[in-house]
Design a protein that fits this description.
By secondary structure, the protein is an alpha+beta fold. It is built from nine helices and nine strands. The structure holds ligand L6N33NVT and fe (ii) ion.
């Protein structure tokens, strides 16, 4: 990967990393030792959790990239009304993101290398930390296409506002946003550092509307990864769109020139839902009921009536009592592509615990993230069906919603996030 700034740095985060890497290797070995006492294999990672992913490419990173363990997601309101300032910001963000994702500081002087009389161009808390697989993915919300920036006629039809879903209790202050950035990394400090520096760079042009930290990815987006578990204790992400499904990704994930908004070619659409779980109630529910709600067993993650996690789903199979193994309203049956004209989602969610709610309950759940080619044909019908019929609703509440058009990837150092939108 080339250095997008074209220059060396006086002090690179990675040059400070030597000791940290050794420490992490030792800690990693310890973790494997402890894990081997258990029956279940550890969740697989890429060759190294400290290595960088390329920033430049046809598509943005952080979508089919094997899901990292940590998330910091942020939605911004644009506070400037000036289109040129917005473009400047996207250019500055792109340059910073190209550096940050390669394990460098946000600016070329860094936290301690600039004029001591000036504020540093990096905040410093990631000094000594490696790239940690950081990816930064940007999206544009429907509100960006209002009158302010002359973009009203550039709004893709697929970025239609989501309908109201039965039972949702959305909190406006933690929903929506003109822009979003998804930061995923194997180290939470690296993800938070990236978002903090983008917010710092955006001072006076954007303000943070809401943000969400996540841990323990709840989906695998590559077959090389083991399936992680959500906070209800179930494997989540078994039947997901994955990096290796090239034909399905073309058909179901990436926007195409013929889709109506040519500037989105190579991009995709993102839906976020913060879903609070009443896990104290869930924890008092019998194992049998829990498994019937999802349609999979809790230990292995196998479809009910089958043995192994990746055994094919057989919705027609019946038990000795003549009832289908997978109930007619099981979550996996309601959400399955066959129930929605073959509509798939690439799920990339994270667990969250935002402390407790003051009533003796954890404020915890799933920060659901799904990428797709057209939410009107994918997320909306699936969620409408789940909202109406899923017995899981007794234990969950949707409290925040976001919808964003994620533009294509940045080609090289002369390109920037959203160029195709602003420069037809
Ligand atoms: C609108 C889309 C979906 C929402 C919202 C959603 C919420 C949600 N899901 C789980 C747990 C599991 N989901 C599983 C499968 C699954 N879920 C969706 C969609 C939504 N889920 C899809 C498309 C699928 C795949 C269906 C299939 O093709 O088989 C599973 C099973 C394992 C898996 O395949 O991932 C679990 C477990 C929770 C806890 C939740 C809200 C809090
Ligand atoms: Fe689900």
């Amino acid at each position: 990967m080339s250095d997008p700034s074209g220059n060396g740095r006086r002090m690179s985060r990675r040059s400070l990393f030597g000791l940290g890497a050794a420490g992490a290797a030792v800690a990693g070995a310890g973790a494997v030792g402890a894990r081997s006492l258990l029956d279940e294999p550890p969740v697989a990672h890429a060759a190294s959790t400290s290595a960088p992913y390329p920033f430049y490419g046809e598509h943005q990173a952080g979508i089919v990239t094997p899901a990292q363990d940590r998330l910091h997601f942020v939605a911004f309101d644009v506070t400037t009304g000036d289109r040129a300032e917005l473009i400047d910001l996207l250019q500055e963000w792109t340059a910073a993101a190209a550096r940050l994702t390669q394990g460098k500081e946000a600016g070329s002087f860094g936290a301690v290398g600039g004029d001591p009389a000036a504020a540093p161009d990096d905040t410093g808390e990631a000094l000594g930390l490696p790239a940690s697989g950081l990816t930064l993915t940007v999206g544009f919300g429907p509100s960006l296409f209002d009158k302010r920036f002359g973009l009203a006629d550039r709004r893709p039809a697929a970025l239609a506002d989501l309908p109201k879903f039965p039972g949702e209790q959305l909190v406006p202050e933690i929903s929506g946003g003109d822009l979003c950035v998804q930061a995923c990394a194997h180290d939470p400090q690296v993800a938070v550092h990236a978002i903090r520096n983008l917010a710092r760079i955006g001072f006076g042009k954007v303000s943070v509307r809401w943000s969400q930290l996540g841990f323990g990815r709840t989906s695998s987006t590559s077959r090389a990864q083991a399936t992680p578990r959500n906070l209800m204790g179930f494997k989540d992400g078994t039947n997901n769109l994955k990096l290796e499904d090239a034909a399905l990704l073309r058909e179901q994930l990436w926007a195409d020139a013929g889709d109506g908004a040519a500037w989105m070619t190579g991009g995709t659409y993102l839906v976020t839902r913060k879903i609070r779980m009443t896990i104290e109630t869930w924890d008092r529910t019998s194992l049998t009921e829990q498994e019937q709600i999802f349609g999979r067993d809790k230990g292995e993650g196998a479809p009910l009536g089958a043995k192994r996690e990746f055994d094919p789903l057989d919705f027609a199979a019946k038990g000795p009592d003549g009832q289908p193994h997978i109930a007619s309203n099981a979550h996996i049956r309601l959400a399955h592509p066959s129930s929605h004209g073959n509509a798939h989602l690439l799920r990339r969610g994270y667990n969250f615990v935002d402390g407790s709610d003051g009533l003796g309950r954890l404020d915890a759940g799933l920060f659901f993230i799904a990428y797709q080619r057209d939410p009107r044909k994918q997320f909306v019908p699936v969620q409408m069906r789940l909202a109406r019929e899923d017995p899981l609703n007794e234990y969950i509440k949707h409290v925040s919603s976001g919808l964003f058009a994620c533009p294509p990837g940045v080609r090289d150092a002369s390109d920037y996030w959203g160029r195709t939108l602003f420069e037809p």
